[in-house]
Structures are given as structure tokens and as C-alpha cells.
Amino acid sequence: MMPIAVVAAGAVSPLGSGEQATRVGAPGAAPVSTICDDAELARAGLRRPRGARVPAELLRAASDRSQAILEAAARQLVAELDAELPRWRERRLALAVGTSAGGMPSLERALAQRAHGGDVERDLARAALYDGPLAVLAALFGPEARSVNVLGACMASTFAIGLGCRWLNAGSAELVIAGGYDALSALLATGFEALGATTSALPQPFRAARDGMVLGEGAALLALVRPDEGLHATPKYGFVLGFGATSDATHVTAPDPEGRGLARAAQRALDDAALAPSAIELVSAHATSTRHNDASETRALASVFGAGLGSVVVHPFKGSIGHTLGAAGALESLAALDALRNGVLPAAHGAGALEPGFGARLLSENEAGAARHCLKLSAAFGGSNAALVLGAAAPPVNAAPRPRRRVVRRYDGPLVTSPDLELIARRTRLDEVRRARLERASALAITAVALAVEQLGPLPCETTGVVVGTAAASLEADELFDVRRRERHAAGVEPRRFPGTSPNLPAGACSIAFDLRGPSLAIGGGPEGAGEALAVAEELVAAGDADVIVVVSCNDVGPTTRALFRAAGYALPTDGARVLVLGAEA
User: Fold this and answer.
1) Looking at 154, 374, 510, 554, which residue is catalytic?
2) pLDDT score of 233
3) Cα–Cα 20 to 30 A to 42, which of 250, 274, 380, 411?
4) 349 catalytic, yes or no?
5) What 3-state DSSP class applies to 582?
6) What is the pTM of this model?
7) Exposure string (b/e) for 214-240, b if CB count within 10 Å is 16 or more?
8) Is 286 marked active-site?
9) What pLDDT digit, counting tens, does each position of 305-351 carry?
């Protein structure tokens, strides 16, 4: 793709605000950790109440913490844009913002009110939806700007940055604001603890003795433009040079043990940048410090770099600021660009023996080094993967923009209002146990896709993706999990109910059911979800990120969704799932 310049940014993290939020430090410095005991999580009854929060003094008073965090990053970005591009408001603007949990702090309050029989007021209901916090961006950038809410869980902001680059390469926008955010909440922390994914100490990425992650919070927004748009020869932050996205199609909460999906995303990003793996000196790893993720990522790195892995430095930034979920990819990308600009090879937290087979360099303190390129890796619930190639400077010979392909509709299916388990058994590779564990939204989506497969025949596994557009997101599953949390407290929740609280789950479930390994993710979380998903799917096919995209409009509309949408003053989403299959014209 044509390199895309990062001309301004805004960020807040547990490390601070602005450039401090993602600073890796000088050569010779050890990594700084912001992880500590968290009083709010302790009051919620967690056995491992550890977290990393944005300092309160960096946030304006707001009823919703997610909104306050996102607004802090956005206001910094506006100030930088005013300095770097004084006439930026005259450009065609688009926003791609990723999140895992949206307005979860407000949703927790709304669910508590419902549990006690109270009515939810309009402002709280609007803030509680998965696109609720984006209201602060509409106030700063204007409601007329094109906007997509990426619900891709922990790879959401990495995907959002890649999507923004596609828009700019296509000429459909002149300035893109891309990134992500998430706030720490008791519901999320309870769920990850229930899955056995958290540690009571500090994360130790890629160490043999690691035992889990710690959640953090933050936001990062990047201003992206084409480098031929009258800018300085060297933008303030650097460049995005390549993007790739895939799905594992293996498991909804655990990565492919061999890391094949993540490796394919990395290779696609490298191909997009027209760079060989030997051009990468630094990897910004997903590195959650969980047993399965780090082992899978270790194998992915070995697959991508082969014999050259020993010269690559791996930076696991989550060890400093915790796992910031939807914000992680954007914050980690800014940290990587900081390292490239300042000639630093950044260090990692932890000590002791490394994960078996980990052949890269993991530093105990920062080293001086003139790295030119970084590979950023992200993975997520549902088996979604995304990768970026970053550079401090544009390559001397720029990769050409991808040729655009005409997109055609291959199938337009009926509305499915109830799951068909017999059809799912006949047309998918899900065994009886997996079929029985499907929550309603995923079962609806898979049924609708199965109807498409009955008519079209099997879809090409490697090059077919899934984009789920949703208004309701996972509100019904959220309340069901929260009811159990209140009834049984944090120690008594059922781990199997937590995955359903991710809006990304139906996309991953469809990928697994039909072995589809192209990009997979959810889009929306508000009234415009279906339209946003269709636009994203068309872009992925036109740009060559997939040959086929299965677009699923999917809403599980139950009492929680009805109550919140009515309180918000929004029209109720249509209950059920419907599929539209897009493909590249032959």
C-alpha cells in the first residue's frame, strides 16, 4: 500500500498523557510498571484485584469513564492537529475507532438500576451502548464525519488503523482519525479472572513462569493522511506501511496453538508494505502473558522470521500499562513509533527462563539501536488477528496502492429469527458440544450463514472473511453475566458465560463453524451498525484483504436491548440475523 503518515496523536494511559502515555524511555532504562492493587476491583470481590488505571487528574469530570478517557485523547489530538495541519477541518474526515467494551462503566450502572427495578434515564442509556462514548468525538469532529465503530475486541484499534489506511489509499477520505479506547470495569475484570487469565503479581510476557495478565485502560487516536497531501517530508510520528487481518477459525477464547492465523496476518502486512521479514528489527507483540497466547505468538514469530528471529527485539508493552483491550493496538503502535524515532530498542518486564522456542531478543533494559521498521501484532476473542508494519520514515521505493476491485453481491438471504440447530449440524463443522454451547446471537448468525452456504456451496476458506454488523451488540449476554455476578459474586460466576459478553463472538463463531480464515470482526454497537458493517466489508473486498466477505446483520433483541434502546429514544433493532455475501468481480 501507499505509506500513510501519522501526523498527530492524542493518548492517555496509566503512564500519563500525550507522548508520556506511550514513552518507552531512554537507552539503559528499565521498563516502568503502572500495575498495582486496585481498590475498586477489590470491593467487587475479585481474588486478584490488580489493574492499571489512567491517573484521575488527567480526566475531566464525566458520568462515564470511557467517555472521559476517549475525550482526553481526542482533545490532545485536536490541539496537535491545529498545530500540524491548521486547515484540517476543511478536509474530508473519517473516523475509525475500536473498542472491546464501549460504554461498559455506564452499562454496569444501567444494569444495576434495572436489577433494582428502576428506570434508566435517557443519557445513561445512550452512554451505556457500545457506541455511546463516540458522542464525545461527534462534538469535537462534527456529526457529519464518516464514522465506524470497530468492535474487534483486543485487536480493534489495530484493525481501525489499518481500515483508515485503506480509506486513504482509496481516496475516500483526506484525513482519518483512527485508534481505540477502553476503561477498566468490574464486569470485564471478573470475566477475565473467571477464565483464569489474570495474575496476582506482575505480568511476565514470554517467560516460562508467567501466569496471566492484568487489565489496564487508556485511549489513543492517530491522525492519518497520505504523504502527498502537502505535509512536511517527515511527519511527527512516522508511517504506517502495511496492514493485514485474518481469523484463526479455531476457538473463541484461545488462539490457534501454532499461531498460524497471527502469522498469516503478519505476512499479509509485510506483503502490503513490500518488505521482507529481514527488514523488521522490532516486534510490538500482543503478549498478554497468558499461557496460551504467548506460546501461540512464539510459534507465529518463528514461522514469520525463521532463522532470522534471533536478531529481532520483541517489545511487550502490556507489561507496563496492562492489557488495555480496544486501546492496546493504538497505544502499542505509538510506543513502537516512539522507539523507532528515538533510536531505542525497548525492554520487557519479567525475569527467568523464556517460553520454550522463543528465539527472539527480550531485553531487560533499553538498548540504543537504529531500528527502521516494526511489526505490530494483535489478536482477539473470536480468533481475530490484525497486524501493521510501522516505520519512522517512508521507504525509498514506496509500495504502490492496491488496485481497486469491483464488488458484487453474490447472495442476499432472508431474515432468520430462530436458530436452526439441525441446519447447523448439517452445514458446519461444529460438534455436538460446540453446537450446544452457542449463545443465541452466534446461533442466529451461523444459521443465516448456513443458508448462504446451502445456496452458494462451500466458501473459499483462506480468502473469506466475516463482518458482523450489530446494533444490540452483546447487551443480553452482558446482563445475564452481570446477574450471575451480583447473585454469586465474582468468585462464583460461570466462565462459559463470559465469552458471550464480547460483541466480536458471533463473527468468530461463524469463522470457526465454516473454517473461514479471512478478516473477521464485529462493527457497530449502535443504531447504524448494519450500514457501517456493509461499508467495511465492501472496503475489504475492494482493497483485496479478502476475496469474499460474509456480511451478517445480527441482533439478539431481548428485554435488556428493548429497555435501553427505548430509554435512549432509539428505534428498536430488528431481532434476528440476515446475510449478504460480497465478492470481487471475476
Assistant:
1) 154
2) 60
3) 380
4) no
5) strand
6) 0.98
7) bbbbbbbbbbbbbbeeeeeeebbbbbb
8) yes
9) 999 999 999 999 999 999 999 999 999 999 999 999 999 999 999 99
